[in-house]
Amino acid sequence: MSKPYLTGRWAIFQTRASAEVLGYIINGVGQSTTPGAPPFQISDGALFAPDGKRLGHLAPLGDSWAVNLGDHEVGHVLRAMPG
Fold first, then answer.
1. 51-63 in b/e burial notation, b at 16+ Cβ within 10 A?
2. What pLDDT is attached to residue 66?
3. Opening angle at CA 66, ends 19 and 59, nearest 5
4. What's the pTM?
5. Which of 8, 40, 67, 71 is positioned for an S-S bond with 23, CB 3.0–4.6 A?
6. Rounded to an integer, what distance in angstroms lies between the CA atom of residue 28 and that of residue 1?
7. Cα Rg for the chain, rounded, in angstroms?
């Protein structure tokens, strides 16, 4: 399966409806919104919180990617950023 979230710029949101950016994935590498704070990470197709907790596997969701929590539940969402 293609993993486009490993290239380009992606913003991480708490939910599909959230507007606040929690962090970034830039070319597959996590970047924090707060200088010096640990970033989110992606490893083996799963998203990890800044504290190292595994949030779940990423699955396509329209033009975004989301943590699949099962039974039609969606966790954190990655949205592509322009540029």
1. eeeeebbbeeeee
2. 95
3. 160
4. 0.91
5. 40
6. 16
7. 12
Contact criterion met (CB below 8 Å) for 67 and 56: yes
Say which amino acid occupies 24. Y
Residue 54: helix, strand or coil by DSSP?
strand
CA distances in angstroms from 68 to 58, 74, 78, listed in the order given: 6, 5, 12
* Degrees, nearest 5: CA angle 65-71-73: 45
Predicted confidence at residue 1, as pLDDT, reads 62
- Edge to edge, the sheet with strand 64-70 lists 29-32, 23-26, 9-13, 73-80, 64-70, 54-61, 46-48, 41-43
Tell me the pLDDT tens digit for each residue of 26-70: 999 999 999 999 999 999 999 999 999 999 999 999 889 999 988
Distances (CA, A) of 59 to 37, 41, 78: 26, 15, 10
